[in-house]
């Protein structure tokens, strides 16, 4: 009887965490769907107010700022975010991620599993991968070097290129070691434990029924640390790390059972992982140990950047802005007057901060923010 009660309790916890993660994904995709559902294989339409439209990601490339978002919008600013030029883009689907390897070579990923590439700093773009019949959206893209890159997305979507984006192959994460392997616990069991907080007996009990939760978690963000390791932040408290250019991955012991929606690499193997309800965690040893950082907010955290003077900006839904002035060890929580969702931020010169989100790009004015009590 006791065993059955434990089994039922564990099963309910699994369903609860999965449901909560899916509800958040549905909320985010609902923002994108109205502008993507009727996408055509055509060039994005030039819009005078494109810089005020829904934008989801951004990056700097040798001083230029590149932002992407709804309707295939790609905009570039060469003056720190004052004037924006909308590029000709051969897609009208919502673009969810952008990555520049250098000033010239850049990539953008779309909701309808398209990958676009530029070789001239964003002036021209070409679709190098498209699988629009696959309903899993791409959510982020990152390159290890000019040849090797990764695109990740919903329900375990993992794409790899080894020829600079000319060709892409779909693969599963090769998880070769889990954080409890030395204890004789399988990768599936360990991943369940990390995702749902189950002990080894509970995890083993659910191995057959819940294995799909481990294999098909939504992969939300991917980045490379200063030491060259690659990290993936995923739903249900899942964190992956690769030390061999993405050939194999370790499932790390998670400090949190909710979804991670963003991560920010600092110096060495120090990183910040963040997500639902204002939860933010720091590691200084590549994910072997974790410290929870108080944020003063329960808003979902989405993205961030670090300035030249060491200040760190983390942004989130409802106009949430977290500012750290001591390298990410503690934060002050602010609310932007617009209270609009801020997906991420970039800094073109190491000093200025541009907020990217619900109504385009805004310059951050710290003095105009109110402290969130």
What attributes characterize this protein structure?
373 residues; alpha+beta; Methylamine Dehydrogenase, Chain H; 5-stranded mixed β-sheet; 5-stranded antiparallel β-sheet; 4 helices; 16% helix; 35% strand; disordered N terminus
Please explain how this structure is put together:
The protein is an alpha+beta fold and 373 residues long. The chain has one domain: 7 Propeller (Methylamine Dehydrogenase, Chain H). 16% of the residues lie in helices and 35% in strands. It has helices spanning 2-36, 187-196, 200-205, 207-215, and strands at residues 55-61, 64-69, 74-77, 85-86, 95-100, 106-110, 114-118, 126-130, 138-143, 149-153, 158-161, 169-170, 175-178, 219-224, 230-234, 239-242, 249-251, 260-265, 271-275, 280-283, 291-292, 301-306, 312-316, 320-324, 332-335, 342-346, 354-357, 360-363, 370-371. The strands form seven sheets. Strands 13-17-16-15-14 form a five-stranded mixed beta sheet, covered by helices on one side. A five-stranded antiparallel beta sheet has the order 22-23-24-25-29, with no helix packed on it. Strands 1-2-3-4 form a four-stranded antiparallel beta sheet, with no helix packed on it. β16 (239-242) and β17 (249-251) form a beta hairpin. α2 (187-196) packs across α4. It is globular. The termini are far apart. The relative contact order is 0.11.
């Amino acid at each position: 009887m006791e065993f059955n009660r434990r089994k039922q309790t564990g099963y309910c916890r699994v369903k609860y965490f999965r449901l909560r993660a899916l509800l958040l994904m549905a909320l985010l995709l609902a923002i994108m769907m109205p502008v993507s559902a009727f996408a055509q294989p055509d060039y994005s339409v030039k819009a005078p107010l494109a810089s005020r439209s829904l934008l989801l990601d951004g990056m700097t490339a040798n001083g230029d700022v590149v932002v992407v978002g709804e309707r295939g919008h790609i905009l570039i600013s060469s003056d720190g975010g004052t004037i924006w030029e909308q590029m000709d883009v051969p897609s009208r689907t919502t673009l969810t991620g952008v990555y520049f390897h250098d000033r010239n070579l850049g990539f953008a990923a779309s909701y309808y599993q398209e990958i676009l590439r530029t070789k001239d700093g964003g002036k021209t773009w070409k679709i190098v991968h498209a699988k629009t019949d696959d309903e899993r959206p791409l959510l982020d893209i990152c390159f290890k070097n000019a040849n090797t890159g990764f695109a990740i997305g919903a329900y375990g979507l993992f794409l790899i290129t080894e020829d600079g984006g000319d060709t892409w192959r779909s693969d599963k994460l090769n998880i070769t070691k889990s954080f409890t392997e030395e204890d004789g616990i399988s990768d599936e069991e360990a991943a369940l434990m990390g995702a749902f907080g189950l002990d080894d007996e509970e995890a083993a009990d659910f191995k057959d029924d819940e294995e799909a939760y481990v294999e098909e978690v939504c992969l939300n963000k991917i980045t490379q640390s200063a030491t060259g390791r690659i990290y993936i932040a995923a739903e249900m408290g899942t964190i992956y790390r690769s030390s061999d250019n993405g050939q194999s991955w370790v499932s790390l012991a998670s400090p949190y059972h909710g979804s991670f929606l963003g991560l920010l690499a600092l110096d060495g193997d120090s990183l910040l992982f963040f997500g639902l309800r204002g939860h933010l965690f720091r590691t200084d040893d590549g994910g072997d140990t974790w410290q929870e950082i108080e944020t003063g907010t329960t808003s979902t955290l989405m993205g961030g950047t670090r300035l030249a003077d060491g200040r760190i900006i983390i942004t989130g839904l409802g106009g949430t802005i977290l500012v750290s002035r001591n390298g990410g060890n503690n934060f002050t929580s602010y609310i932007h007057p617009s209270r609009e969702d801020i997906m991420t931020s970039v800094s073109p010169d190491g000093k200025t901060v541009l907020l990217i989100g619900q109504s385009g790009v805004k310059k951050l004015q710290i003095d105009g923010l109110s402290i969130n009590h």
